[in-house]
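$ fold --in a.seq
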Amino acid sequence: MIMQFETLALHAGQEPEAATGAVTTPVFQVSTFAQDGIGQPRGYEYARTGNPTRTALETALAALEGGAHGLAFASGLAATQAVFQTLRPGDHVLAGDDLYGGTYRLLEQVMRPWGLQVDYVPVGETAAFAAAWRPATRLLWVESPTNPLLRLADIEALARLARARGARLAVDNTFASPWLQRPLERGAHLVVHSTTKYIGGHSDLVGGAVVTSEADWASQLRFLQNAIGAIPGPWDCWLALRGHKTVAVRVERQTQTADWQAGRLAAHPAVEQVFYPGLKAHPQYELARRQMRAPGAMLSFALRGGFPAVERFVGALELVLLAESLGGVESLICYPPRMTHAALPPAERHRRGITDNLLRLSVGLEHAEDLWHDLEQALEGGSP
């Protein structure tokens, strides 16, 4: 039976439990499983290797991304590390130059000393990836949209480039969610998520995931998942499954509100620039229309007046919370230079466009008018 996205989100991998008929996948809070004899497990042996709650989540995630294999990890960075760990010392990664600060830290402070070669190129310029190619290039790593400047990679073009030259393309799809974008359908070899964000959706878990249809890559990743042990516990898997069911309705509503907020912010005199692929002024507006269902619920904006204006604005907010993370039901504001991207040296941040007056907004499920009222009053100096 062919099912649409919303139906898959509710049912893929989540059949009623066999023993009792429970319609929600149980939390199998167990570390080991009894076997019927030596070499005769009943499908599970030890919970680091596999757990029924985790299996349900992995099956569900693969279905949403249109992949054959899903793997759940303890965090988005654990998932990212596993992907890089499939490479060998001396291999070369071409990464988009606008990316999460934690990924930059992992590449520069963990993987480069280990022996990985890394270059960063403008994420929206396919020709730049081709120009920076080396004989040792094995992986293209991009976020789309990017964190925090909401730039887009042309996934189909990069996938063609990678396949033509014997490499692979991995796309961090966290900012979009599977509801807005399915990179595997556009030729990517692998998709990574921080399930902490839109898939979990309620700011109550930390997790990560990898989805691929490449059997050999999935086999390597599953080996690393077990050998390294960076797995989510069953309760976190259950929470991710809970959020997974409503990702379509949440992200659709959040995107509608974000689109409205972006237009209003762009028109406000206190705002210098808005970064949002749903605005026609965005340089990749047409690409967003082509490869995404909608432009998403993340936006960034720069304030006139530099960091003092940022401090005044953040201090005046009453509804929107100053916090890291994103994709939850509540709206969160983040100051990337000192929060999510603090791992980048100041000169590197500025070179990449992460200026001292930049803020990142994750739009939640508040009423659009209430959210705008809070943003507007903060832009104008706070409530009387």
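$ fold --in b.seq
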Amino acid sequence: MKITIVGTGYVGLVTGACFAEVGIDVTCVDIDEKKIENLKKGIIPIYEPGLEEIVERTVRKGRLHFSTKLSECLDGVNVVFGAVGTPPDEDGSADLQYVLQVATEVGKNMTDYLLMVTKSTVPVGTAEKVREAINNALTERNSDLKFDVASNPEFLKEGAAVDDFLKPDRIVVGTDSQRAQKLMEKLYKPFTMNGHPVIFMDIVSAEMTKYTANSMLATKISFMNDIANLCEIVGADVNAVRKGIGSDRRIGKYFIYPGTGYGGSCFPKDVKALIKTSDDLGYSLEVLKAVEDVNERQKSVLFGKASRYFDDLKGRTFAMWGLSFKPQTDDMREAPSLVVIKKLLEAGANVKAYDPVAMNESKRILGDKITFVDDMYEALIDADGLIIMTEWPEFKFPAFTVIKKLLKNSVIFDGRNIYDVSEMKEQGFDYFGIGVGM
């Protein structure tokens, strides 16, 4: 079976590599010539555990290929996946120009029946726009070639994407024809044989499922962040509250860890897009709007704690551990660290930062606005306090005696609650977490 995947970003590259891993012949297409040349050399454009090894192995075995020309990658292909970006417009809606460009090019160059599958996260109704774009291109060719469209949203967690793809909780597929469904059944057979379920539904429902899933998870995060802030006011410990509710099977223990707000490529964009879709249809998603408002406010919580502790931040220097929006990724999109850094700089403070993986991406975004260091302890030298933004494993068991020695003030602002309050007090630190008192 041969498939083509358009887009070699986070979703496209993981999808292509993992399909190749289970024996499918895959060609990944991208218009970025430099990226394709690097991929051919084994240079991966994103950090994702396990991905580099799979790409190297499947390329060597001749199952994974790379190209810059979609027109040359359609002969004999059964399925084409569109995995291009859908960046948010200023009004929060998803920009579909790249999705529709792919559909148009497929229509212009297809040589036989194929199934066009949308893998990108797109608003409800996009499949029909894709169908229309392909039809228009075929009409211009005076071609009567047949095709189908389908929706196959991704549910990949950054930092665990390879495992999520190879061992999925579920695979959601939206189709409106038996021929398309049989193709998708064949494509995902290696996964269903291992007990991973494929859930077939209509296309619109599949499109809606992706946004609903991410919005539900974002809601849990914002809800717990709101509760954490209330816990501080009343003197409760949010960690105890979290354990108390997480044991309820109706709620579960996942996505109820308070912090500095959600970021990344999915939750912020998808929440905004669903709100915009609903507003355009004349219905206001008030709960989801509150989720977004709470998240934006939460990103400034650590800055507020530092401001109250020091009164005046001008001229002070802060060490920052962690820059990416979460561990095991170099993704800086919508990262709360960027908000905290911006506010600290506006207040006249300086920042010395370290992240195990996201340094290059952070330098690309921030330039020389802050100081980047190569070691977590180096960031502490002559710093007035430590701010923890990302719960990387290496931050969880540091040498507290070294931290105390290097910092000017024994104060830690922990945006991920990775340390125990009582232990920090015993160590002589002023410790400020999220939803916990000192």
